[in-house]
Structures are given as structure tokens and as C-alpha cells.
């Protein structure tokens, strides 16, 4: 999920970073709604004293598939299944997370998850260890969650990667996988049925972090103490598969039509002009989309959760000091929003090589179906 580029803060002050952005058509103005008062109630549903969960998928029966990428510095399998009693085990099985398993049949570092309505879990494996050393080629893995079996894998073609590539986020729709390269900013489009893979929008400003990340009032720094610059890792797709949303953790949020990304006749010049600045988000730990198209954002700057409706109304639904670096959330068909707290600023990658996470880390649940609609 995170490969950092290190720059002394004085090299890229925020004003300069913004000034180097190309002229972009402004997004249609969003409409604010008053924050929920009181905040939406949060219920603790799971916790860990050993792993840093950065994403999750919630199965219809209440079990959770939990993602702990290698770069967090936490031990244990990169994917874990937690049943309704709290018991955990490697997912899909022990062999797929065993270092002795052949690389093509092993998950090294799950960077991104997407659960489809038919029970398919899409997993993006960077193949990189905690120090970003390649252990296995990156790949997209399709898992049947009903049988806990891997049904197919797609190795990422070396031709669409670059030295320093770190695949970080994936969403699947309309027969294609859309994969973010955060190490070297770019977007990889993989045709699931026919196999071709294309690399698009190399170093496009919408994919490239233009300033550091602010969390809890402080600049997030890398292992050497310099400002951490992280390219696009956050990605989501609209329920109808028509729009792809993405951004670096520092923001802002862009949107582009998937029909453009899957059309091989579209030129690179046309693609470069196609992303739309969709919302000037705060620094995000992750985002997810509900069935009605409402986006939910985890704001790491203030420990808040925002919603952004399809009608472009935004509203803060909760602010809570327990939400220290909330990571990628998940929402069920019934509107249950699950938020893992990750404290990533206290993990080695962003804490001068030290793990000082304040255990336990907790997953919270919010019943968004019970919330009043935002009123402007």
C-alpha cells in the first residue's frame, strides 16, 4: 500500500507543491451539511494485539477477512480470517501464507482487497517484504470465499512495471482490474478475460503526491525522519462500474470514466486530460463506497469519518480520538460500515523504524442505515 519517497520538508512546502499542479478544471462545488450532532455511535467489534490491519472484507455471515501488509512491520500472515467467535486463521489457508510455498502460490503482502457480491475476493499482492525487497512477482489473486480456495491468479506483466514499482490498490469492474502503482505513479489496466495489460497515465499529477501527509496535526515522516511522500494508494469504483475514484493519501480525490481506461483507441494525450478533480479531500487513510454511491472517507488529520453523497453533499458523521489513523473501511449491503484503526504513524515505516503502536488496535462498526440523511 505504501512506498514512500523521502524529501526534506523545506524542498516541497505546501504552497510550492500546489503551484506545480497543472491547470485542472475545478470540481463542481460540493455542498456541506452540518456535522452529525451527536456523532454516529461506534461499536467495537474486533481487536488485535499483534497485527496492523489496514483493510478488511466482511462476509455475509459476519466473518471478517483482515489484511496486514508486510510493510506494516507486524508479524503473522498477510491475510487472516476471523470467525464470529474471534478465532483467527491464515486465509485462504496456511499454505498460501507459508514462506516455504512457491512464490506463484503464496501471498507475500496483500495490499488491497475487494469483495464482490458473488463472494469473490480480489486480492492484490505486491510480492514485497517489509523492506520493499521483491520476494515474489506481484499478482492479482481471485479467491472464492465460500470455499476458501484460490480460483485464478494473474501475474502482473513486468512490461507494465518500472524499477521501484509498488502495486498498492485495486478495484475490479466491467471485466477489468484497475491497479495503482504507488512506487512509480501509474495506473495498470488488466483485461481479466483476454489477458492484455496496459500501463496508463505515467507520472500523471493526479496520481502523484504533491505534498506531505498531515496526521494528528503533524507531518508524517518516513523511517529516516524526512517528510513521507506517498503516491496514489486509495482507489474505489462506483457501484455501476462507470467511475474510478483515486488519490494519494494526502489528497485530493480524482475521478475518471472506466470506459476511457478500457478503450485501447484512446490516446495518452486524451487520457491525460480526462481525470476530473472530484473533491478536495483531507488526508485519507482509506475510502469505500455504498450501494447508493455514497463515498465514506477516513480522515486521518482529525480522526473523523466523512460521507460524500452521489449528489455531492458532504458531512462529517463522527469524530473520535479513538480513530487514530483509521485505515481502509468496508461497508456491507445493509449499510454496516467497518473501520479498522491502524496507527500507521506509529509503525516502522512512518516512525523512524520503530514499532510503537498502542495496542490493542480496534475495528469499529457504524450503522449508516440508521443515520439521518444529510440536510443542507
UniProtKB/TrEMBL annotation:
Keyword Signal found: yes
UniProt-listed InterPro entries: 6-blade_b-propeller_TolB-like, MRJP/yellow-related
Coiled coil: none
A Pfam cross-reference name: MRJP
Subcellular location, record wording: Secreted
Signal sequence coordinates: 1-29
GO cellular component: extracellular region
Gene3D superfamilies with a match to the protein in the record: TolB, C-terminal domain (2.120.10.30)
Keywords, sorted A to Z: Secreted, Signal
Protein name: Major royal jelly protein
Organism, as annotated: Gluconacetobacter aggeris
Lineage: Bacteria, Pseudomonadati, Pseudomonadota, Alphaproteobacteria, Acetobacterales
Amino acid at each position: 500500500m505504501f512506498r514512500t519517497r523521502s524529501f526534506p520538508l523545506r524542498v516541497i512546502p505546501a504552497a510550492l507543491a500546489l503551484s506545480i499542479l497543472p491547470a485542472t478544471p475545478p470540481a463542481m462545488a460540493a455542498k456541506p451539511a452540518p456535522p452529525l450532532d451527536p456523532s454516529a455511535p461506534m461499536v467495537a467489534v474486533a481487536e488485535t494485539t499483534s497485527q496492523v490491519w489496514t483493510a478488511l472484507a466482511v462476509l455475509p455471515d459476519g466473518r471478517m477477512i483482515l489484511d496486514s501488509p508486510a510493510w506494516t512491520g507486524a508479524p503473522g500472515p498477510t491475510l487472516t480470517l476471523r470467525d464470529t467467535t474471534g478465532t483467527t486463521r491464515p486465509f485462504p489457508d496456511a499454505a498460501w501464507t507459508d514462506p516455504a510455498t512457491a512464490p506463484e502460490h503464496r501471498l507475500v503482502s496483500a495490499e488491497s482487497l475487494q469483495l464482490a457480491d458473488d463472494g469473490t475476493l480480489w486480492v492484490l499482492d505486491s510480492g514485497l517484504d517489509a523492506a520493499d525487497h521483491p520476494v515474489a512477482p506481484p499478482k492479482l489473486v481471485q479467491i472464492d470465499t465460500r470455499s476458501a480456495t484460490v480460483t485464478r491468479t494473474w501475474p502482473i506483466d513486468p512490461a507494465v512495471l518500472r524499477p521501484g514499482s509498488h502495486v498498492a490498490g485495486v478495484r475490479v469492474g466491467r471485466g477489468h482490474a484497475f491497479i495503482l502503482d504507488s512506487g512509480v505513479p501509474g495506473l495498470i489496466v488488466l483485461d481479466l478475460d483476454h489477458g492484455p495489460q496496459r500501463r496508463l497515465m505515467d507520472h500523471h499529477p493526479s496520481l502523484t503526491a504533491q505534498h506531505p501527509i498531515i496526521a494528528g496535526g503533524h507531518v508524517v515522516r518516513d523511517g529516516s525522519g524526512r517528510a513521507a511522500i506517498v503516491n496514489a494508494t486509495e482507489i474505489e469504483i462506483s457501484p455501476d462500474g462507470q467511475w474510478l475514484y483515486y488519490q494519494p493519501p494526502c489528497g485530493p480525490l480524482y475521478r475518471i470514466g472506466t470506459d476511457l481506461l478500457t478503450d485501447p483507441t484512446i490516446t495518452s494525450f486524451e487520457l491525460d486530460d480526462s481525470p476530473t478533480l472530484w473533491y478536495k479531500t483531507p488526508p485519507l487513510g482509506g475510502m469505500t463506497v455504498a450501494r447508493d454511491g455514497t463515498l465514506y472517507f477516513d480522515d486521518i488529520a482529525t480522526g473523523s469519518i466523512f460521507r460524500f453523497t452521489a449528489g455531492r453533499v458532504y458531512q462529517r458523521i463522527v469524530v473520535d480520538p479513538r480513530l487514530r489513523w483509521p485505515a481502509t473501511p468496508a461497508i456491507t449491503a445493509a449499510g454496516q460500515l467497518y473501520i479498522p484503526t491502524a496507527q500507521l504513524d506509529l509503525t516502522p515505516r512512518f516512525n523512524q523504524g520503530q514499532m510503537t503502536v498502542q495496542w490493542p488496535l480496534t475495528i469499529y462498526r457504524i450503522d449508516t442505515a440508521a443515520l439521518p440523511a444529510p440536510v443542507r
